[in-house]
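FAQ
Q: What does a multi-component entry look like?
A: The components come first, one per line:
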Amino acid sequence: MRRLDGSAVGFESALADLEVPTESGERGGSDVTSTVAGIISDVLSRGDAALLEYTQRFDQLDAASLAELEVSRDELESALHDLPETQRAALSEAASRIEVFHRNQLGEDWSFDDGLGNRLGQRVTPLERVGVYVPGGKASYPSSVLMNAIPARVAGVSEIVMVAPTPDGERNPLVLAAAALAGVDRLFCVGGAQAVAALAYGTTGIPRVDKIVGPGNRFVAEAKRQVFGKVGIDMIAGPSEILIIADGSADPEWMAMDLFSQAEHDESAQALMLCPDSDYIDAVDAAVDRLLPQMERSAIIEASLARRGALIKTRDISHAAEISNRLAPEHLELAVADPEALLPLIEAAGAIFMGIHSCEALGDYCAGPNHVLPTSGSARFFSPLGVYDFQKRSSIIHCSSEGAAPLARIAKVLAEGESLTAHARSAAMRIAD
Amino acid sequence: MRRLDGSAVGFESALADLEVPTESGERGGSDVTSTVAGIISDVLSRGDAALLEYTQRFDQLDAASLAELEVSRDELESALHDLPETQRAALSEAASRIEVFHRNQLGEDWSFDDGLGNRLGQRVTPLERVGVYVPGGKASYPSSVLMNAIPARVAGVSEIVMVAPTPDGERNPLVLAAAALAGVDRLFCVGGAQAVAALAYGTTGIPRVDKIVGPGNRFVAEAKRQVFGKVGIDMIAGPSEILIIADGSADPEWMAMDLFSQAEHDESAQALMLCPDSDYIDAVDAAVDRLLPQMERSAIIEASLARRGALIKTRDISHAAEISNRLAPEHLELAVADPEALLPLIEAAGAIFMGIHSCEALGDYCAGPNHVLPTSGSARFFSPLGVYDFQKRSSIIHCSSEGAAPLARIAKVLAEGESLTAHARSAAMRIAD
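Then the predicted structure of the entire assembly, as tokens:
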């Protein structure tokens, strides 16, 4: 694997070279942007007819109506029922652990009296209807269904509408089973920017939702960006990343396999290991070479490591934490003997895996926390997907007749300072009650 | 004012006619989109030089360097010191009430043991650096500085960078004073899409931030949309709105003035009152006619009411709640004798003002809750700006050697089901410890 020295001159630019080039669609003006804008306009003006045409064109799937593209509750339940017992048990156990974890995120109403007789607070209620996008084809993952739909269910969302393209009409039974387990209410076999447009604006066949979550290709991501504001969206997801800070406590093969588990996603995934010990880096590098040929997805892993991977020598562990903080990785493994001692040095990361037994794969499937995490450094400001994404807050302001007066006096002065005299008079009316 | 009957045929479309037409910039392809994309590219490639040029062009303000456009901490403190005592006291009292309210929103770390010896939880930390956009000219409001910066300060953000255009170099002393009170760390007299670009990407003179909040014109809104993902943003703000549900408990003049307080913002602001009592609607309508000529901003109020305002007769109070829920208004006044009884019928609103003494103006300035609220129906999925917008969460997964094994068995089955065999092996390595 590529070796870098974190203390060397030129390290910053070597690291920058491993970043994914900015998507040209990211800031408007590109082909993706205008293609997606065209699809959205088309779905807005022609509704279901446009959806059916795009589904025919992109998924080679003929349907005369949206109803033909809807998967019935019975089919979902049958898919779950028909799974091999081992798979059904694993999926159910994962679903239950995800649910238990996410229950801790439920927001609650609160209020207090301000001492003047006014009650102030915040009310927390679930979103009414939510859309979950699940990619089709190779990237169609049942775990992703659980991670996106269960927090919505825990939040108390009334209706979860899932969309998933089914190229050539092929439905993935594991995905259907996961939808049944996660409590998805309706599932339509449509995808792409057209599915996002339908969820955002509503068509005859597909109901309008309040928020759209779930991963997708760059057309889906761009569509989500374009409808943002009309509906809520989760975040703009980039390629997946792992950053391991290692002190040599773990078997080098574990580190190699953890890097592979990220790299196997796709060729733009990033796998980095930071370590102060050159001998250990050598050992991990040797393990990578030894294990790589055994991997089923070795071509993807090799390409990903060649393009974006690196083993980085640091001065010490805190230097590793410093570099990690600059990158704000999606997944951060603290593969060290004393992860609790290292944690206070960490400023930003989507999920932090503490100690050598906490590998990313456990978090991806079943530890309980969400696997939808901020990528590309956005852990500086985004959080993991959670129940809080499916609840909304409203402020509550309840003034008494005595309590309103002192507030009105303040508001009047400030409103006059802003030349908003109707504000001032509206407030003043509550003084001379 | 316009009168509508909520039970009449054609009510829906009459109501829809009062909506603001979709901004053409909203979904790409328009002039605003490409102008903004050009400005952002320019700031990205030429940095401070581009910023200075745009500031010269748009604000008629010559400066040789960004340093000349920075307002010193001394100037901020002097502005606060020099305010008339009444204004300084009102601003301080408002700041203190806003702070007290927002402290209730502080998120906290939590974790639990899953019964297998694994510790799972969530860590909550402040964003490092945040940008606050404050519009210039007529819409330059000190209250907006308090509402945007104080939650960031409460969250524990290390550095708050404020930007505000100063057309012709005119600095608003109330805005500077509010910045001092709110604990703004640095203030630059730049605005527009160029200021947003500088905050998102960083230039020599302006540091890169993690999130940009604050209102602005459509160029600013579009710029925020375009940089979303590189940095966090608050929300896409549309024109301000009030919806009053009235049962006749309040003096009709109070209702008229509350409608005016929204309408005076600008001509696209919306003021609606819903009421089951025709006589009371008549009385409010008469009060509107009587009071309007007395208002300083009567021309704006009149235009706003003519374009988007309405008094709507409903069958009963719950019918009014139903219509309100469809609109999900930014500000909702429950001007009724028993607001607690009505509240359970309300599904979505940015801020809910309970009872006739709780007018919007009190919330705009000093009740304590934030006045940055979701507009244009986005209260269906957005929340008021809050401390939670300036904190980020990280998942914590700490597996013990015994606790990892049962998780690894589940993960292995699911990973194999998704053909992600490196995931499966990475997990399996934690079984045979």
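Q: Is there any commentary attached?
A: Sometimes. For this entry: The CA atoms of residues 235 and 400 of chain A lie 41 Å apart.
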